[in-house]
Structure formats: C-alpha cells, structure tokens
C-alpha cells in the first residue's frame, strides 16, 4: 500500500505526466486514431519537460545572482523558497503531504464534475507544495491522522477549483479568451495586479506595442532584449560583490565573462520556456475538449503561470524588474520596522513578478504592468514575513513559502485557529461549501463560473 501511495504521489507531483494523462484521456474520449493519441499525449509531456528544463536553467543562473547581491549589498535574512521549505518539511510530514495530495486531486475532480467551478488544476508540483503547507499548518493546529488528511484534501481540492475561477475574467483578457485558466498558487497576486492595472492604466497602451526607434528594433526580439537586460543586472551585482568573490563562483573563469555568460544563459532559459509552452498548448487544448465534452462538460484546464508568458513577452521582463524593486523596498521597510528581513528571492520575483506584469498589462497597459508587478513584489515581502510564525512551530522558520496563495492560506488558517481553534476551521469549510453550492441554483451566463 505504501509503495502504491508513493507511486501515486510521484505521478501526481509530475506536471508533465499529469498533462500527458489528461491529454490521453481527452483524445480517447474524442475517439481519435492511435497515432494521434500517441502524438497528442507525448506533445504536452515533451513541452512541459522543455518548459521545466528552461525553468531549471533560469533558476540555476539566478542562484549566483542572488549570492552576488547578498554579498555585494551586505544583505542577510530569510529567502522565501517553496522547494527549500518543502524539502525540509518532508522529513516530518512526508506521509501526510502525500495523502493530502491524492485526496486533493479527487476533491478537485468532484468539484469540477458537480459544481460550476469546472477548473481542473494541472500544475502538479504546486499542488504538492500546497499539500505540504496544509499538512504543516493543520498539524501545528492539532489535527492529525484521518482528520488532517480529509480537511487538508478538502482545502487543496476546493482551492484548486476556486482560485482559477476568482480571476478568470482577467485570464480571458490575458489570453484573448482562449480556454485556459490560471493554475498556479501565486494567483491572488496576479489578480490583484490586474485589478490595480484597471484602476491606474489603459489596456490599449499595452507593453507589446511599445514604440521602439528603428535602430533599437532588435529589442523586439524577446530573447535578445532579455539577454541585454539580464547582462546589466548581472554586471551590477558582480561589480558590487567584487572580483574576488565572483571568482569563487566562476571556477576560474574571468569574473566579467562569467557574469555576462550568466545573463546570456538566462535568456536562453526563457527562450526554452517559450518553446515548451507552445508545444503544450498546441496539443493540450484540442485534447482537453474530450474531457470538456465527454467526461466533465465545460471543464477548463488550469495551467502553470509560465504558460502565459507568450501572451505578453515584453510584460514578462517589465513585471520581473518592478516586482524585484517592490521586493527590495519591502525588505527595507521590514528592516526599518524591526520585522523579519525577507530577502527578495529571484525565482518567485521572476515567475510571479512576470505573471503579475502580464496580468497588470492586460487591464492597464504599461502602467498596469509596472504598478501591478510592484505591488506583487511588496506582497512577496510582507506576506512571507507574516507566515513565518505559523511555520516556526514546526522548526523550519529559517525558510518559508514565497508565493501569495500559500502565504494567504497559511496566515488565514493560523489566525482563525488562534482566535477560534478548530471551530474556526469547520466554519471556513462550511463557508466554502456554501460558495461551491449556491451558484448551482443561480442562472449565470456560462456553465462555468466567470468563464464569460
């Protein structure tokens, strides 16, 4: 039994396999011929592996940049990192996390089948991270064994369906009404960015129509523009850290050449991500029609944030830069006020900041992308600091979750428990049930909540 659960955990935490299985089921439901089932199943798998390879390449090149910034600007504190906190927590919560993950997937499918929240969450690694957060927080609140798994699975599965629905009206603007949804647990930050964008800017003044003089026309090539931007970032960090320190990272390569190559490799990583996304969408969306029409009518796939990068490629870079600036200012404010110093993690600021920029741009153009991503950067500083006390009871307070949904859910559950104990958790469950059921008795424009 344990081996089966471990196998299921591994399968469900592999987004590439999960996407492939979804595509396979959809194509079978559509009664496609064998060769199309084969290619349509492998396409999303290979596309996501390509996306993951690009993301890993980006992360590996961001790591030395973070070290140079810490050294050059004398910064010490906590760096939010989902992977680090999950790896640490698994020593204590491995079985609970695994069971919550499996339970959450089934709850998501049940919600999609029987309610108007017809969003199927396909970003398996984020489901795994959320399962870990829930096992940590609920465990700290005194839940254990069957109660912990059932409650954790309920929260994971319902939020997997509800979170894409909350901002689907913004996602439709981003994708020009393509039938996909946001399946990433930084979603609240993106929706806030889109809401702010609508207040401060004009969507017609989009980042993608920025006027560039002819002699600078090469900057319309996203890979080249990214490379130039990141080379400047790396050079500033490298100069601040000093040649002697950079030499300890470069394995004998000239410090200046080393930082330039890091910037170039970062751009290549982004290009790989873009190509992987195109492969995923080319096969997944047509195949998903089989699920949407035959198995769970009107269902919509909720996919990773990087899938949205191709819809506003200039906003990706703008979002990253302004989110990082927001993170730095947030860190300074925390330092001045005596709070825990949250060092801006370049990985969440790149992926979440870029996506916030895309969403802000969809409603507010350039100004929306800048301000929306900046606010997202502040949230990535303040919310992890507020989450730390909730996680600290389990002994891994030296790191914390970074993305907005993780921190909000952890803070809400921890705060409710402090004031109301277990009763507060059961009240939240009752409220969620009401939210899920009421739309079934209300006439809406679409059979799927907010999918106009």
From TrEMBL:
Q: Which UniProt keywords apply?
A: Cell membrane, Membrane, Phosphotransferase system, Sugar transport, Transmembrane, Transmembrane helix, Transport
Instruction: Specify one Pfam family.
Output: EIIC-GAT
**Gene Ontology cellular-component annotations:** plasma membrane
Q: Where's it found, cell-wise?
A: Cell membrane
What stretches pass through the bilayer? 12-30, 37-59, 98-115, 127-160, 180-197, 218-236, 256-281, 302-325, 331-359, 371-391, 423-442
Membrane topology of the entry? Multi-pass membrane protein
Claim: Transmembrane helix is one of the keywords in the record: yes
User: So what does this one do?
Assistant: The phosphoenolpyruvate-dependent sugar phosphotransferase system (sugar PTS), a major carbohydrate active transport system, catalyzes the phosphorylation of incoming sugar substrates concomitantly with their translocation across the cell membrane. The enzyme II UlaABC PTS system is involved in ascorbate transport.
Family, according to the entry, reads as follows:
Belongs to the UlaA family.
- What protein is this chain from? Ascorbate-specific PTS system EIIC component
Q: What is the lineage of its organism?
A: Bacteria, Fusobacteriati, Fusobacteriota, Fusobacteriia, Fusobacteriales
């Amino acid at each position: 039994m344990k081996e089966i659960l471990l196998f299921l955990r591994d399968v469900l935490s592999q987004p590439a396999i999960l996407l492939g299985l979804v595509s396979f089921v959809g194509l079978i439901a559509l009664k496609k011929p064998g060769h199309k089932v084969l290619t349509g199943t492998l396409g999303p798998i290979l596309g996501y592996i390509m996306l993951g390879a690009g993301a890993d390449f980006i992360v590996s090149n961001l790591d030395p940049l973070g070290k140079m910034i810490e050294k050059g600007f004398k910064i010490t504190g906590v760096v939010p990192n989902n992977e680090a906190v999950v790896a640490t927590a698994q020593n204590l919560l491995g079985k609970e996390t695994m069971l919550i993950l499996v339970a959450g997937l089934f709850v998501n499918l049940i919600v999609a089948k029987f309610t108007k929240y017809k969003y199927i969450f396909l970003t398996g690694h984020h489901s795994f991270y959320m399962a870990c957060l829930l096992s940590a927080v609920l465990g700290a609140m005194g839940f254990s064994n069957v109660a912990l798994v059932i409650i954790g699975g309920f929260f994971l599965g319902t939020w997997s369906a509800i979170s894409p629905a909350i901002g689907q009206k913004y996602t439709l603007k981003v994708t020009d009404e393509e039938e996909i949804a946001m399946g990433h647990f930084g979603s609240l930050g993106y929706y806030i960015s889109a809401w702010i964008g609508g207040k401060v800017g004009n969507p017609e003044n989009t980042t993608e129509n920025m006027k560039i003089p002819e002699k600078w026309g090469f900057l319309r090539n996203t890979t080249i523009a990214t490379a130039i931007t990141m080379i400047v970032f790396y050079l500033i960090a490298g100069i601040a850290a000093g040649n002697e320190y950079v030499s300890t990272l470069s394995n004998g390569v000239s410090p200046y050449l080393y930082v330039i190559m890091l910037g170039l490799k970062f751009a290549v990583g982004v290009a790989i991500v873009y190509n992987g996304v195109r492969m995923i969408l080319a096969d997944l969306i047509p195949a998903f029609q089989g699920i949407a029409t035959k198995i769970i009518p009107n269902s919509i796939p909720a996919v990773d944030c990087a899938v949205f990068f191709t819809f506003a490629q200039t906003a990706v870079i703008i979002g990253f830069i302004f989110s990082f600036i927001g993170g730095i200012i947030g860190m300074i404010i925390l330092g001045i006020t005596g709070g825990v110093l949250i060092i801006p993690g370049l990985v969440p600021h790149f992926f979440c900041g870029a996506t916030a920029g895309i969403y802000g741009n969809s409603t507010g153009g350039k100004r929306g992308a800048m301000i929306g991503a900046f606010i997202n950067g502040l949230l990535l500083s303040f919310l992890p600091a507020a989450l730390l006390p909730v996680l600290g009871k389990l002994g891994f307070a030296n790191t914390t979750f970074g993305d907005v949904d993780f921190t909000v859910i952890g803070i809400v559950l921890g705060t409710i428990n402090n004031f109301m104990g277990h009763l507060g958790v059961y009240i939240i469950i009752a409220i969620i049930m009401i939210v899920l059921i009421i739309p079934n008795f209300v006439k809406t424009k679409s059979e799927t909540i907010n999918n106009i």
